[in-house]
Amino acid sequence: MALQLAEVPTPFFAIDEDALAENLRILGRVQAETGAKILLAQKAFSNFALYPMIGEVLAGTTASGLFEARLGHEEMGKETHIFSPAYRSSEFDEILGYVDHLSFNSFAQWEAFSPQALAAGKSCGLRVNPNHSTQDGGIYDPCAPGSRLGILKKDFLGKNLRGIEGLHFHTLCEQGFDALQETLNAFLDQFGEYLPLMRWLNLGGGHHITRADYDVDGLINCLQVLHRTYGVQLYLEPGEAVVLNAGTLTASVVDIVHNEMDIAILDTSAACHMPDVIEMPYRPPVLGAGNPQEKAHTYRLAGPTCLAGDVIGDYSFDDPLKPGDRLVFGDMALYTMVKTNTFNGMPLPTILTGSPSRKDWRVLRKFGYEDFKMRL
Question: Does the keyword Transferase apply (predicted)?
């Protein structure tokens, strides 16, 4: 018998395989028309049960450290790339057993680890910093003053690039093609002279390619021109674009309190289940809800932890909320399950996957007390 979402206790994540397939269709078109290879950035989405589906289209995975590298290698088994701000010598030999491409964040790291990497036959590159911000993302801006990410042009002076096969820049966050074009121009102005020496160029992540208003044709044309001009293998490593709008988080109202406004306390937490709400900040969509005062009844949606700031946001509804009502938060596949935590002993949401069109939902993982206890 097919599992019905209404029967599943809240809170739970549900990964929409129909939406994921549509995202993969768009990304597959970019690959087919440009020759570029697209990698899943696992920092945004690491639900490896979906890796076989994703791996049918994408070229592989990219990792930020040992555990992600191992996961991508074992569960998708295609190309595995890694970038770390600083590799640890105690992990490096194991990393080499999982990855094909490595990007280094400094010449000191390259000089320290290149003998091992080259002896193992790995393709090595350097992450560069074009020093050109296209966003006001604060903690999400790798080109912000004082950034630790990427090598500046001035640090290339006098350096020997023998053994380096690629360059890597990653400067975007949830941005359109215009930001990529602007960044690429800055990159070429500073580092274009080195591209004839390279075999590949990684344009990083943060590309919202599957967003409805993204200029996919502009991206395709740009990649085609870039390849014709320099002859390098191009890589993109989006995370959000792979699973954009492909997941929900369903929660229930537990209580309604009033302090200058109506506040609905839910069984889900911004701090524990959707940390980007607090970090970015970010206001997730809620099915059927509007902006404050847009509909008849406005509520502040808040979590049940002891953190005073465990607040998701203010929303309005056609009808009053009451305990037991279910709310569905959208766009919850990315940067949620990989960031969940058990602060305050908060239970982790169940994870489901399935196809809404086929109504064949299944449980990937349930969590309980031991999942909280074992981390401590």
Answer: no
Q: Beta strand 350-354 with 362-365: parallel, antiparallel or unpaired? A: antiparallel
On whether 155 is known to bind a ligand per the annotation, the reply is no
215 is in an annotated binding site: no
Q: What is the pTM of this model?
A: 0.96
Respond yes or no on whether the N-terminal peptide bond of residue 11 is cis (omega within 30° of 0).
yes
Could you tell me which of 307, 364, 345, 300 has the C-alpha nearest to residue 327?
300
Structure tokens, 31: 């690959």
pLDDT digits (tens, 9 = 90+) for 181-208: 999 999 999 999 999 999 999 999 999 9
User: What pLDDT is recorded for position 135?
Assistant: 84
**Looking at the domain that runs over 5-13+247-332+340-374, which CATH code has it been given?**
2.40.37.10
**What is the rounded average pLDDT of the residues 243-250?**
98
Cβ atoms within 10 A of the Cβ of 117, count?
A: 21
Across the range 23-39, mean pLDDT stands at 98
pLDDT for the residue 1: 52
Tokens 């087919």 belong to 32
Assigned token pair, 292: 């404050």
Buried b (16+ CB within 10 A) or exposed e, 238-275: bbbbbbbbbbbbbbbbbeeeeeeeebbbbbbbbbbbbb
35-242 has which fold? Answer: TIM Barrel (3.20.20)
Domain ranges of the chain: 5-13+247-332+340-374, 35-242
